[in-house]
Amino acid sequence: MAEEQNKIKVKIDGITVEVDPGTTILNAARKIGGEIVPPAMCYYTNLEGSGGKCRTCLVKVSKGSEADPRPMPKLMASCRTSVMDGMEVQNVTSEEVQSARKGVVEFLLINHPLDCPVCDQAGECDLQDLSYEHGVGQSRYEFEKRTFEPISLGDKIQLHMNRCILCYRCVMVANQLTEKRQHGILYRGEMSEISTYIEQALDHDFIGNVIDVCPVGALTDKTFRFKNRVWFTKPVNAHRNCDKCCGKVTLWYKGEDVLRVTGRKDEFGEVHEFICNTCRFDKKQTADWILEKPTEIASTSVINSNHYTSFNPPAVIAKNEKLQLTNQEQLKRTERLK
Ligand code: SF4
Ligand code: FES
């Protein structure tokens, strides 16, 4: 009961939610879920100090609190602003927020190449989704985009600085999950770049997590690169007894082959239990794992195309023998998956 009294009320896009004091607007919105949740490119729940870098999560605080109802004068980064009792926030219902987000996307794309057709992150890239929602067809930037040669971070990780949006998530993984930090952001402003100080290999059991936390295709898995498009693969949750990490992963299948192994992401694209390099890079046989169930993927995600939990063949197939024959393989596969 005492706990109940401590909760504070906040209204986001007209929906009221009760949260603990100290909760950020972003996390309060996540508690409601759905379309009103602001996008977040740099905040990551399990990385201490993350957030406040990318500005994609901007919202309008139209009422500060019950005690001081004045609106906040500027749009606020929802990942870094705590809720107050009686606060009212606008995200999708504010024209101002939508237009600011459009501006943020334009800034993020100033140097980011539109190489989605050849980028391994395509289909699960936060910036790609954001660009579809808020981007415009043409850039107003007249200067040349800055370019870098791809850098090999050891034998398992590839860095494409061209695609980096400087969200700092990978730096925090290196800082917080490994014992010695060998990589960080060098220089300032337009010159900033992720570096490993003379391209030193990032040699640590948990460093593979930089791939999972990178919101774009700047850090990719060399053991998966160019092997397939993510929407042709089928994610399945699996686990194994691992003495280094939780051993809970998602296996990405193409046919019978495990093409890659990643940590399990929640509906906001975040991994909560980080996995070790052995699970990620060295266990690519089904026999290494105990399979659980198909991974749940948002119905709006391109990864969900072609899938699979309950295939309902159009009624016409059941009635038409010729169609049944031509779809035999697909129907058999469906039976197996039931
Ligand atoms: S490489 Fe990826 S995770 Fe690291 S700062 Fe750049 S965008 Fe963020
Ligand atoms: S997610 Fe809030 S500033 Fe990046």
UniProtKB/TrEMBL annotation:
Superkingdom assignment: Bacteria
InterPro entries attached to this UniProt entry: 2Fe-2S_ferredoxin-like_sf, 2Fe-2S_ferredoxin-type, NADH_UbQ_OxRdtase_ferredoxin, NADH_UbQ_OxRdtase_Gsu_4Fe4S-bd, Prok_molybdopt-oxidoreductase
GO terms of molecular function: 2 iron, 2 sulfur cluster binding; 4 iron, 4 sulfur cluster binding; metal ion binding; oxidoreductase activity
The keyword DNA-binding belongs to this UniProt entry's keyword annotation: no
Gene3D superfamilies linked: 3.10.20.740, 3.30.70.20
Compartments where found: Membrane
Entry GO CC: membrane
Pfam families xrefs: Fer2_4, Fer4_Nqo3, NADH-G_4Fe-4S_3
CDD domains membership: fer2 (cd00207)
UniProt keywords, alphabetically: 2Fe-2S, 4Fe-4S, Iron, Iron-sulfur, Membrane, Metal-binding, NAD, Translocase
Stretches assigned to the 4Fe-4S His(Cys)3-ligated-type domain: 96-135
Domain 2Fe-2S ferredoxin-type residue range list: 6-95
Cofactor: [4Fe-4S] cluster; [2Fe-2S] cluster
Signal peptide from the UniProt entry: none
Similarity comment: family membership: Belongs to the complex I 75 kDa subunit family.
Record-given protein name: (2Fe-2S)-binding protein
Species assigned in the record: Candidatus Sphingobacterium stercoripullorum
